[in-house]
Design goal:
By secondary structure, the protein is an alpha/beta fold. The protein has eight helices and eleven strands. The strands form two sheets. The protein has a seven-stranded mixed sheet, sandwiched between helices. Strands 3-2-5-6 form a four-stranded antiparallel sheet, covered by helices on one side. Helix 3 packs parallel to helix 5, helix 4 runs antiparallel to helix 5 and helix 5 runs parallel beside helix 6.
């Protein structure tokens, strides 16, 4: 069954958490906004967004260039400050934390995966993976490390430096590093942006496995409908607002959703279902 639902960009009808749902939200936003400049020069990168991201799921955020995808992720992860509104990680209000508290939260409860990998070139794959544990001064959970290495197929690459690894292998190391501290949520920003289609599919498969087999929660920003189809749900943004969502996405339903975003402005108040 096609469960695609598209909602209008009317700011008076922003979709929030659905009534009657029992799914726990790992991350949520309430009237979250980010503005740059003032007066006629003001730009609303994010406009009073209400959205929940369920625990134990892979959720993709999609939308046209400039729709607010990365801005939303950065605010939820505490990498940027909101102009107004609130962001929560579990029951912790991220937008109320100071710099020191944010540093602790990002170190202990959040993992990051970026398209540029961000591995330290002088370290081996193993050293890159365990680095967050060492920075936190914590004790490495060797059983968890072994589980990640096995799941991500890195057993024969642990003594290799990044320059000796393929792009897909480097990204798998980055995923293991993001998961090593067992964070509440992993934020992935265009994780396949620098990969060929085969390596990208490999990495996306591992992200999905980390959710289904390892119980992780991932919020992924992507522009690729094929990548989004690996998610449990797709959240659509346009002009800094939530424009709809797609459950159990396929590449075709995601493309249809993106096409619908281009027509909603021509029919204010309309609701499109496919």
């Amino acid at each position: 069954m096609d469960t695609t639902v598209y909602r209008p960009l009317d700011p008076g009808s922003r979709p929030g958490p659905q009534s009657g749902t029992t799914t726990t939200a790992a991350v949520r936003a309430r009237s979250l906004s980010k503005r740059y400049g003032t007066g006629d020069a003001e730009v609303r990168a994010l406009d009073a967004v209400d959205v929940d991201f369920a625990a134990g799921e892979l959720t993709a955020i999609m939308g046209p260039s400039g729709s607010g995808k990365s801005t939303l992720m950065h605010l939820l992860a505490g990498l940027d400050t909101a102009t107004s509104g609130r962001a929560y990680l579990g029951e912790t209000e991220v937008t109320a934390l100071g710099d020191k508290q944010l540093t602790h939260l990002r170190r202990e409860r959040v993992g990051f995966v970026f398209q540029s990998f961000n591995l330290l070139p002088m370290f081996t794959a193993e050293a890159n993976i365990v680095l967050p544990v060492e920075i936190a001064g914590a004790t490495l959970d060797r059983a968890w490390f072994d589980t990640l290495v096995q799941t991500l197929g890195l057993g024969r690459r642990l003594d290799h430096r990044p320059s000796e690894l393929s792009g897909g292998q480097q990204q798998r190391v980055a995923i293991a590093r993001a998961l090593i501290t067992k964070p509440d949520v992993v934020f992935a920003d265009e994780p396949t942006g620098n990969l060929d289609s085969r390596s990208g599919a490999e990495v996306l498969g591992f992200l999905r496995r980390s959710v289904r087999e390892l119980g992780r929660t991932i919020v992924m920003v992507t522009h690729d409908p094929t990548a989004a189809a690996y998610a449990d749900r797709v959240v659509l943004l346009a002009d800094g607002r939530i424009a709809g969502e797609i459950s159990d996405p396929t590449p075709e339903s995601v493309l249809a959703g993106l096409d619908a975003l281009r027509t909603l402005d021509d029919a204010p108040g309309a609701e499109v279902r496919a």
